[in-house]
Structure formats: structure tokens, C-alpha cells
């Protein structure tokens, strides 16, 4: 099928399915219009796809070959440069279009700025939003823009979606107060462990949308993300949480956002690509 706003970009190296028949449908959002520190998130989707060339499609620990799974890649959204809201509208419309054609599909966004998660959440209407992030993203507005990536968790909370936030080590007093007043639980990266994750996520209503802002990882794993922060999570900590969610909750959407870089082979994209393969492998046979 043709999508109104997508164009083709680099594909994954193994055979892919048509979006109508796929279980997992990849969609790139090469938007970096509101990043305040390091530019390059517009290259995130392309860098992640390229980084997959370095990886085996066979996942050792799952005995799953993701090359055998029904995966589609519908390319990248044509962004409205500098306008996160209008770009997120295109994400929403594209995800809606996909769900009409294939209601069972699980969209996987590759970003690109976290601001674009809002479009996917608007389309998929999950009951809960589980997010790994260095930042609370609960600002009402940032740099005079309510659709700045620093506001995305706030916009999603305003939709009435329950939230749980993990890996935090950056926020303002106002954001902490907002979280308290609205009963949004969050776990500091220093305090994070698997038990804390399960305790907070278990009671959340389904379906669940899982968002990984790549800056949740320690910056040694993601040096080219737009707003890197020291003191983050390790790779297996996030994989283990993801596995628990896939096995225990009904997931309607997944994303890996804030990947950036200026050069093929960037460490940040290698981290993101490996995480993507683990999500696909964990979801095989379950999702
Ligand atoms: N969600 C995000 N990525 N937020 C980033 C906010 C940037 C905060 N800069 C603070 C600079 C203070 N001088
Ligand atoms: Mn972040
Ligand atoms: Mn974020």
C-alpha cells in the first residue's frame, strides 16, 4: 500500500513483508527541529537501519531468527521541518492508515525526536505509556513550544494515558511537582532495578505503548543522542524490562527515539539497532 507521507529509505538487509501482512511495521521519523543541544536526530532512522547491517538476524538467547518474522518497513515520514506538531500529525495519520489496513500490526517508530511519539500515541490510544528516558519530558512548554521534545510526556498525560517513567536523572522542580500532583510514578536511574520496574508497571491498564528515549542509556552507549546525560542505564537492564512487558502486557506500539549522529557506524545507532533486534526477537511468537 502507499502511504501519503512516507518515502523510502535504506531498508533492512533481510527479506521484508508488505505492511498489510506484517506483524511489525517500522516507520522512521527523521525530525530534529526542537533539539536544543546536539543536532543529528534527523539521521537517526537511517543510521539505525544502516547499523542493522552489522548485526546477525539470529538472536542467540532466544533461538529466534528475526529474518523469518513478518516485518515491514514503510520508510520515513516526510517531516515538516521545524514544526513538531505538524510532523506528529503526519505520524498520527500514517499510523492510523496502517492500523486501518492491518489492525494487528505493531508499529515501531525509529526517531528522530521524542516529540514524535505523541503522534503514534494519538493514533494508537493506549491506556498506558511506559517510557525509559533520562528526562522527565513533563514541561508544559519549552523554548516557547508545547510540542518540544521536552514536553512529550506531559502532552501524553493530558490525553488521560497512565504513565510510568524509568531512568530519570534530569528534570525541573516544576516537572517533579507535576508528576506528584498527577500521580505519575518515575524512577531515578540511581534507584532503577527490575523489581522497581515490575512493581510500577504491573498495575498499569492495557494496552501499553512502550517508548525508549535512547538517552535513558548511559551516555557511553549513546554519545550522539541530542541531549546526553551521564549516569544512565545499562543495555541489559532495558532489554530485561522490555522482555517482561512483551510477555506480561498487551503492547500496541513501540519506539526508539532520540537516536542521532553524523557518521555511519555511530555507537548510538548500534545500541538502538541491537535494542530493535531484541524487541523483534522477544516479540516473536508472543506479539
Ligand atoms: N527532554 C529533553 N531532552 N530535555 C532537554 C532539556 C534541555 C535542558 N537543558 C537545560 C539547560 C540548562 N542550562
Ligand atoms: Mn531524553
Ligand atoms: Mn524524551
UniProtKB/TrEMBL annotation:
Transmembrane segments: none annotated. Keywords: Hydrolase, Manganese, Metal-binding. SUPFAM superfamilies: Arginase/deacetylase (SSF52768). Mn(2+) binds at residues 114, 133, 135, 137, 213, 215. One of its GO terms (biological process) is putrescine biosynthetic process from arginine, via agmatine. The keyword Disulfide bond does not apply. InterPro entries: Agmatinase-rel, Ureohydrolase, Ureohydrolase_dom_sf. GO terms for molecular function: agmatinase activity; metal ion binding. Binds 2 manganese ions per subunit. It holds the Pfam family Arginase. Its cofactor is Mn(2+). It comes from the Archaea. Belongs to the arginase family. Agmatinase subfamily. This is Agmatinase.
